[in-house]
């Protein structure tokens, strides 16, 4: 039985577990302070604070997505959505495996960043976070200590969220300060040219920019900007363990626990050990506790396989996800608008369509001739079309909206510090069957075209 240890905080527990096999830790209570004492002062994050805050916000977002409320929403609502069931799969087990894989890969991405930050730490143990991450996935220490309901876990996640908030405020405050300093330079030029100088309350402006500089200095101290690499990596490591512990509880049927000898196994053996295959209507799904390791001594990080679950018969596999989402949202906008679509708008919409969808729309439009539309004087015809289009758009448009939102939330060029739960890829058009999707979109486009022609003729 392992010796029981009492750590002052969760971060110390993580590091302690990673060292439990080392001779230096035989007398843990005696050696603990010497092991965790920094050999030199750890540098602060500085400008790296903003990229770190983005990763930290994703970690907080992932934790929130695993709350009882959000997980219940996934089980009872998301996997049962009409669009998801029709275009992707009615097999809820398959959909939950997709959700599990996406969350695990999000956690792995956060872990990779923490490992990179760890290389900048002065503490030699924090430099080897990838070893700690691998030990966690191998089950080499007790995850019960990281229960999401524990006060220590709530305290850790609260710290992460506060740092994200403070760093986000620092980012916006720095942007404001840059604008004010640009204005300050213009004011100085105006001062030197009396004839061009507008009427400005210089004292008030100086007071505002002085206050803004003080605010930035304060935020640099309390945000991630002023935190050491040691402190930041310890805190994020705690958050990662908390999220992983919750993942194992929420998605226990879909996470295969690796065996301890896997650390020393070859990559080819790891594939056979970690992968659990599922055949579902021709689909092949891969489920495992994490991505396939990239090296012999590392089971924590590796290749990301979620996007490869979308075969060539899906929208994502065809590379049309964003394109078709924009088509659907454009049609939805015209349906909700009281004004009819213009000729240029109709032409722009047509050019957005892939070749296969253009052919499908043309073949369907041949069934509705202009003569038939002229002879029909019953408004109930257009009302029937509108009702049918709204019914399809009722489940298709939300998937298109979630597609755009998913990409915006994961835009690497955007400073996104929003810690709220994110949209899952299974809620988008990415895994949708291309043939079914194009048929539905074609129905909407043909209906919109007929409505516009009918209203023009009458």
What does the secondary structure layout of this molecule look like, with pairings?
Elements (H helix, E strand, L loop, with lengths): L9 H9 L9 H9 L12 H17 L2 H9 L5 H6 L4 H27 L10 H9 L13 H42 L9 H21 L6 H22 L16 H8 L1 E5 L2 E5 L5 E3 L2 E5 L18 H16 L6 H9 L3 H11 L4 H6 L3 H31 L24 H24 L1
Antiparallel strand pairs: 1-2, 3-4
Helix pairs in contact: 1-10, 3-6, 3-8, 3-10, 6-10, 8-9, 8-10, 12-16, 12-17, 14-17, 16-17
Rg from alpha-carbon coordinates: 28 Å
Largest sheet: 2 strands, antiparallel
The total count of helices amounts to 17
Class from secondary-structure proportions: mainly alpha
**Which spans of ≥5 residues are poorly predicted at pLDDT below 50?**
1-8, 18-39, 264-298
Strand numbers in spatial order across the main sheet = 1-2
Strand content range: under 5%
| Number of self-contained structural domains | 2
Distance between the termini: 85 Å
Q: What is the number of beta strands? A: 4
H and E order: HHHHHHHHHHHEEEEHHHHHH
